[in-house]
């Protein structure tokens, strides 16, 4: 009985969460001048909003910027987080645990607090309005934590055997450790991609030229410019939502496995 009640509650919660996305999707195929028009007719559906997005705005440019920044951020985060995770998990060096704890403490600092120092640093090194300014801040201590937790499960005897066979630390890391932590890598890739794709505040601050705007920033400006036609706004929101959603669906099974293996379960 309790399981049935729990399932019913989950179904109700899921239904309430899905309704806004359904409304967004169907509204994107309509030309409507009010956000509170919930009546739908098949005769009203049109692709004009999507045509206008791709022809009259800089949507494709914004889309490419977000895609390039997100993919680059994923690669950068995977490379540095896995290397740092391996060092904290398997290498012996002075004050290793203290450094790791200190790094984790940075996670309790709200990202908004670091925006001003980050902006000043980027301005000093003249990286504002560049891809580097948007990509470099993507890796965080959370990625190192996920990688470390996963690498800790790699048997020490396996690494020692590889060292006896003459393998270097770099070869052990690339050929032995990385293949064993693929689920954690995929988990971190999903977290990183979705976070970078949906980031709004930092790209808004770090970019001023239209050519460097990301999709979220471009959508906000489009919303202000085309606030009359809510169908156009919803079409842009749908296109913004779909890439991260598809990315998650493709890697869903590995994502669940990675969460379990990396110690993120409650």
Topology:
Layout: H1 2-27, H2 48-56, H3 59-90, H4 96-105, H5 115-124, H6 131-135, H7 141-151, H8 156-164, H9 169-180, H10 182-198, H11 201-206, H12 215-225, H13 230-250, H14 252-261
At the fourth level of CATH, the homologous superfamily is: MetI-like
Task: Describe the main β-sheet briefly.
Answer: none
Number of domains: 1
Quickly count the helices: 14
Oligomer: single chain
| Name of the level-1 CATH class | Mainly Alpha
Q: State mean pLDDT (0 to 100 scale).
A: 84
Q: Given the helix and strand composition, which structural class is it?
A: mainly alpha
CATH architecture: Orthogonal Bundle
What fraction strand?
Answer: under 5%
Helix content: over 70%
Written as H for each helix and E for each strand, in order along the chain, the element string is HHHHHHHHHHHHHH
Q: What's this model, at a glance?
A:
By secondary structure, this protein is mostly helical. It has helices spanning 2-27, 48-56, 59-90, 96-105, 115-124, 131-135, 141-151, 156-164, 169-180, 182-198, 201-206, 215-225, 230-250, 252-261.
What would your notes on this structure say?
- There is one protein chain.
- This protein is mostly helical.
- It has a single domain (2-261), classed as MetI-like (MetI-like fold).
- Helices cover 71% and strands 0% of the residues.
- The protein contains 14 helices and no strands.
- It has helices at residues 2-27, 48-56, 59-90, 96-105, 115-124, 131-135, 141-151, 156-164, 169-180, 182-198, 201-206, 215-225, 230-250, 252-261.
- Helix 1 packs across helix 13 (230-250), helix 3 crosses helix 7 and helix 7 packs antiparallel against helix 10 (182-198).
- The chain is globular.
- The model has no long low-confidence stretch (mean pLDDT 84).
